[in-house]
Design goal:
The complex is a heterodimer of chains A (about 325) and B (about 375). Chain A is mostly helical and about 325 residues long. Chain A contains 12 helices and no strands. The radius of gyration of chain B is 22 Å and the shape is globular. Chains A and B meet through helix 1, helix 8 and helix 9 of A and helix 2, strand 6, helix 3, helix 4 and helix 5 of B.
Chain lengths: ~325, ~375
Amino acid sequence: MSAALPQDGGRGTQAGRAAWSADAPLIEHRSLASEIWRRFRQDRFAVAGLVVIVLLVAVAVLAPWIAPHDPTKQYDEGLTAQGMPVGPSSQFWLGTDTLGRDLFSRLLYGARVSLVVGVFANGFALLLGVIFGLVAGYFRGWVETLLMRATDVMMAFPIYLLAVALVAVLKPSIWILILVIGIVYWTPMTRVIHGEVLSIREKEFVDAARLTGCSDARILVRHILPHLVAVILVYTSLGLATTILFEATLSYIGLGVQPPTPSWGQMISEGQPYYLSAPHLVLYPGLAIMITVLAFNLVGDGLRDAFDPQQRRR
Amino acid sequence: MSAPAPAGTRPAAGPGDEPLVQVEDLRVHFPITSGIVFQRRVGAVRAVDGVTFAIRRGETLGLVGESGCGKSTTGRAILQLVRPTGGRVLYEGHDLGALRGGALRRRRRRMQMIFQDPYASLNSRMTVGDIIAEPLLVHRLGTKEERRRRVRELLETVGINPNTVNRYPHEFSGGQRQRIGIARALAVEPNFIVCDEPISALDVSIRAQIINLLQQLQREFGLTYLFIAHDLSVVRHISDRVAVMYLGRVVELAANELLYGEPLHPYTQALLSAVPVPDPEAEERRRPIVLHGDVPSPVDPPPGCHFHPRCPAAEPGLCDVADPPLREARPGHLVACHLVTADAYPRLQAGDDDTVVVAGKEAT
């Protein structure tokens, strides 16, 4: 920081005025976004995570152009004489799967499903959770009773059974999958946010905001929401891993992404019976999931610190 | 943007003037409920139980009492931060209790508050500049450039370097944060400020500075204060009139000199006798009046005078039956005690071994 803070000396208003020249240059009032970005950049791990995410998105978008093979084509040379998948070679960089399809190409295409499901399902759960949690915690009264008891009821359902039932009734597709995962995962988010809001709304700065004339909406967005950032980011980066795996589970029992469209979860479940003879079938999609989750976690951590002014210098 | 009033004006509070704030039979009862879905009301904490007073333009009304007597709740209820259960609050003649939403926000613009805890009262996620600019922003005052200048001006007014607008509250000391809170309160040009124990959380060395700042601002902008505190000597220093609260009620209200000079209510006498004297020799001779027992629970206050179970002068059959009204027992000296008459009042004196002798009671 540039100028040293003035000592809290015994000057009153008149003396106070004399301490700074009236026409000293105005310090530029930095915007919140630029301030957060400035702090985010200082965190090398978070930037690395962001780079990985950008790469993943690029791969998902550009899969048709960068994939060396058609991910659904079954190659005769992709299987050994005994019908086993082949290992890495110059033709199949990461080997093939049990049907002789190119694993690397399937991995690239699989990024599309996993990312879309992970991000959108989480975003949907986050949206519902934050809105319900904020409204219930801030306005209290019957709104709170209604929302929180509804959350309890939702949580009482076995989530897999609920998801299976919903997908079975509706036609399985990636968007139905996102909807289902979102509906299943908004409840813990709502509870966590609700609890946080209950404690923050009693702080004096909320009273101060009310007195200065802020509307309820402004208090919620400007004064309460920023204090929830840490909780939301931690919860979301954890939720992302769960969602990607949840998609895998549903795809495994045939209720998720329909074959032959590849998804990482589906690839793991298909390769699972052969994990001794052909470990690469589960290894690479597993690594892909791990790297994705790690990248989101790093970015989440970085954002949390960037949003917290007290963490700025490390 | 100009100052709300020319510097140096402090309207004399004559008896004919309309009070700025009138509090009439204010009650705040917090319900105690049981049950989860269908909540039943099983009782209430009577935090404020029938408080009446008026605050004149330009004066400082001190509000004192021990912890839990309802003085902070009274301040919050006046500003409608806590909605009163009963009674009225008139600000410039308008009933605030009848206002909702935007109407309340606009009316309340000229009423602000300075909070006790300078750490909890500033949003730690906002820069100092944003904190002080927010009131201007939400009331749509000025352009962006004007607001920026005004923030700078306000920071200078409270004695903070205006080049700190991009800093966060945690980078400041307690006293500086309290100054920032004061700047925020001043931003919308209020004429009435509730100071809710503004110095209790501060270092002793900083207190005098904040008190001086508050007094300077009062002179400069013609502010009216409700000064809530439990530090009796500070209240004596800053107030024009003082109200003493006990268990949700005002027991005595008088001009500074009257109240500190000749306290009429037994509780006030006990309270004042507890104040240490700076002179060591006088302090040596000081004999505090020690009251026995604890403050009763505001859930179930005693019948009659709330103070009678602890009052050495209480008369059975009178004090434990009838509520003493707050009345003008001497000119300009309001007291809520049955035993105060036109020419006599129960005078408490500390006896030996923490006993209390009541003098002057015979005269009644």
